[in-house]
């Protein structure tokens, strides 16, 4: 470590001591004896195009730890910033030009930070947020596409291995976790937030899993959290890539709290001042700045009967037939718009996504992530189909928005293709290795 690095660490240590001196011995004693609670887990195509397209650049990580609010340095490559608060840590996803899309380096850094914080008895809880107009638009798919193009399959494996492992770590975290979803939240963005204790959606939140539109499958734990939504909403979101807003996220359980974005700074200030590791105290702070709102009459949440009638069917073909039948009975155009999305998506991805959600309904988070890791490698390697490469080409590279799917239609997708998508690449290919740690509730 150079001179300036040593000087920085010394100043950091000094500042932390000064902060601790602001609190009474009684407060710190109370913190150290507080019981450690462990909690069991609980659209348009144009906008999706823009969101995925903005996730194209990659940055390396060089994360400063500061006692002051992080300030973005346009000349730095700091993709993750960390802030020390009184009794908590705030992690900021800091790639606004890429809508905070995740890459391998970010996953490694997040895992290291979270592990250190979990082992520190002076840290009560963790907050995650994103800079700019997104929380996190998901995994950096262009970053993956570039590795595929260069034949770097091992790099792709490391990408999924690293991010999925961190998502499981969030799902089994031993301290309260608050994700502030004040903006675009997709794919991997949901994967690093929904498994945690609290998710705060706002009036700026948009959520989607648009993977079938680029020839992939809803991953990052999506087969777990989507399959546990009310009725067959999970199948609907997985197949169509349709968006829901912050109010709808709370209504269906994807988020735990709703707040107007104007109230988020006050909520964050409240969290920074807390001296606790008690989830009920953290929730009281979130509730203080929460707002009450209801889904609009046009919301998919209001279409439960039609949605369940169509998306509860056994096959994609039957779902499409049911939607076409419903479209002939109504004049509002909703079924027609859904049919257009389904007919645009990769036929193989549709069948794989449906099976994945159905299996996820009977699996734990770790089982879903292990299965999704297998599926992701199959999609990347392209032994079954090159739809992922073609989907990214059509939407992000050439931008002709006319993917040539292979197979080209649902009737050409065989059962063997779908079965192989759920299998290891080779018999001895290692599965995703997750720790046996389980989050439990203590009294």
From TrEMBL:
Transmembrane segments: none annotated. Residues 1-21 form the signal peptide. Its EC number is 3.1.2.4. One of its GO terms (biological process) is L-valine catabolic process. It catalyses: 3-hydroxy-2-methylpropanoyl-CoA + H2O = 3-hydroxy-2-methylpropanoate + CoA + H(+). Residues 89-422 form the Enoyl-CoA hydratase/isomerase domain. Gene3D superfamilies: 2-enoyl-CoA Hydratase, Chain A, domain 1. The keyword Isomerase does not apply. It is an enzyme of class 3 (hydrolase). It comes from the Eukaryota. GO terms for molecular function: 3-hydroxyisobutyryl-CoA hydrolase activity. InterPro entries: ClpP/crotonase-like_dom_sf, ECH_dom, HIBYL-CoA-H. Pathway: Amino-acid degradation; L-valine degradation. The keyword Nucleotidyltransferase does not apply. Keywords: Hydrolase, Signal. Belongs to the enoyl-CoA hydratase/isomerase family. Hydrolyzes 3-hydroxyisobutyryl-CoA (HIBYL-CoA), a saline catabolite. Has high activity toward isobutyryl-CoA. Could be an isobutyryl-CoA dehydrogenase that functions in valine catabolism. NCBIfam families: PRK05617.1. This is 3-hydroxyisobutyryl-CoA hydrolase. It comes from Helianthus annuus (Common sunflower).
